[in-house]
Amino acid sequence: MNRTILLSCLLLFARPSLRAADSASPPASRPNIVFIYADDWGWGDLSCHGHPVLKTPNLDRLAREGVDFQQFNVLNPVCSPSRVAAMTGRYPARFGVNTVFGDTQPPPEMPDWLDGRAPTTPRFLKAAGYRTAHFGKWHMGDKPDGPTMSDYGIDDSAVYHGPGPKSGFHDIADRAAKFIADNRARPFFLDVWLHESHTMHAPTPASLAKWQHLDDERMRIYAAVITDGDNYVGTILDALEKAGVAQNTIVVFSSDNGPENTGGEKDRGSPGKLGSYYSVGDTGGLRGRKRSLFEGGIRVPFIVRWPGHATPGMKNQRTVFTAVDLLPTFCAAAGVTPPADAAGDGENLLAAFNGEEVLRRGPVFWLHAGSKTEPDCWPRLAVREGDWKLVMTYDASRVELHDLSTDRAEAVQNNVAKAHPDVVARLSQLAMAWHAGLPVKADPSCLSKAQPRAAVPPAAAGKSEARPRVTPAQRVEAFKRWDANADGRLTLDEYKDGLKGQDDLEGRFKRFDKDGDGKLTLEEFAGPTVK
What we know:
The protein is an alpha/beta fold. The protein folds into three domains: about 15-360, Alkaline Phosphatase, subunit A; about 365-450, Arylsulfatase, C-terminal domain; about 470-525, EF-hand (Recoverin, domain 1, Orthogonal Bundle). The chain is built from 15 helices and 16 strands. The protein has helices at about 5-15, 55-65, 80-90, 120-125, 170-180, 205-210, 215-245, 295-300, 325-335, 350-355, 420-435, 470-480, 490-500, 505-510, 520-525, and strands at about 20, 30-40, 65-70, 70-75, 130-135, 155-160, 190-195, 250-255, 300-305, 315, 320, 355-360, 365, 380-385, 390, 400-405. A hairpin with a 2-residue loop joins β14 and β15. α5 runs parallel beside α7 (about 215-245). It is globular, with a radius of gyration of 24 Å. The N and C termini lie far apart (about 85 Å).
């Protein structure tokens, strides 16, 4: 046989198969699943991703023993909507969740909480006999009259920014370890959603002591925070070994978005907690950070260990994995078929957990109703199809097109929109059609055409930019759109039509209706300053 042909055959059989995603046969025994979700942890904040200072021995171990996915994206560059996607398998914009819960003046489409009837991985696995738990951050709504953790299918919980029993930052891993020990004899699904590396920073004394040799105060604090987070990962791995279930447990580590933007002046925060001045997280060379739809804001670490399935030490460079793929993939691993009405946006990529470089079938969409613009936070919509990624304003008056196979960093000078007008036209229409089809839509009247930011006065240079609030004028515009018969009053039906698909609309309507007459005046809805 020709030596060249022989070599080609050997290489073909040696490399993981590359094929379109499809359903995979469930494992012989149902695995436990542990999903560790960090906060604001950049793609480059791992020593195994090449960080020159930070040390993450437990995450490095996880990568050596599993698959390190190089193209994983969350579906929003800020916390709440990113977590909604990971929990439900649906784009967060389908629920109107386009910013963080708890904003004092949220946009009109924003609900008060994630709908308690939304599809969730814990609910589906609980119905199949799994014990489910959630420890750590929630941040998908925390109102006294809102859903409980049980409503989402969660048996055991201790959280912050969420309902039910509360948890501190530093006891999350210990609570999770106890849950593992208590449930080692039955299949379980466990969320461990860490605080690190979100502000305010609260590093432990032991981790601070480890980095005292660094002269750079910012890096010293941040390195201590990352060390704490990595240690908590180690606590989980040790608990699995001690319980004797490590070999039948899928462990996933990821982050909810890219690293925070460092504050321009030292902010000591509250006693024992340090502000964003120390947020020197690393995107690994990717453009943008938290709040940006460029890759630095949405491409994050994603490591999967599954003994006997995931190929140890593999770096999957080809599979485009996203947060909405988690629900169908976790369910497939457990041998669970989500109900037809789950209407998920993700794909079952279980074959990628088994070491194959799977190609996803469909495009991926993003929407972020943020407030910042320049330099990298101006895109409001984004779509990826294959290796093409288009970022754009709502009306496509400003776009950038990048080929991620050759331009991972989305460098400004590598914007190829002018060279490929056909691709721009097709993808922009795809993104706008997706946005138009959402049951609740972000209001594009705000920042629909991003403008360069005005020069910052010297006295304010470097200070954190405050989030612009929804103005009375914006509420007036919404009022006029929803007032179908133009009688100057909003009925409950008109209000519901304006916010289709959101939860508790009657309750929210009543809170606006100060005089209880069943109709909203412009003043009741937009405030007394309206003329």
